[in-house]
Amino acid sequence: MLHFDLFVIGFGKAGKTLAAKMASQGKKVGLAEQDPAMYGGTCINIGCIPTKTLIRAAEENQSFSQVMAEKNAVTGRLNKKNYAMLEGAGVTLFDAQVRFQSNKVLTLTAGDDQQEVTAEIIIINTGAISNQLPIPGLLESEHVYDSTGIQGLSELPQRLGVLGAGPIGLEFASLYNRLGSQVTILDAAETFLPRSEESLAQMAKGYLEEDGIQIHLGVQTQSITNTSDGKVSLDTNAGTFEFDALLYATGRKPNTQNLGLENTDIQLTDRGAIQVDAHCQTTVPQVFAVGDVNGGPQFTYISLDDFRIVYNYLEGDGSYTLDNRKHIPNAIFMQPTLAQVGLTEAQAQAANLPYKAKEMPVAGMPRGHVDGDLRGAFKAIVNTETKEILGASILSHNAQEIINLITMAMDNHIPYTYLAQQIFTHPTLAENLNDLFNL
Ligand SMILES: Cc1cc2nc3c(=O)[nH]c(=O)nc-3n(C[C@H](O)[C@H](O)[C@H](O)COP(=O)(O)OP(=O)(O)OC[C@H]3O[C@@H](n4cnc5c(N)ncnc54)[C@H](O)[C@@H]3O)c2cc1C
Question: Is this model's pTM higher than 0.85 or not?
Answer without folding.
Answer: yes
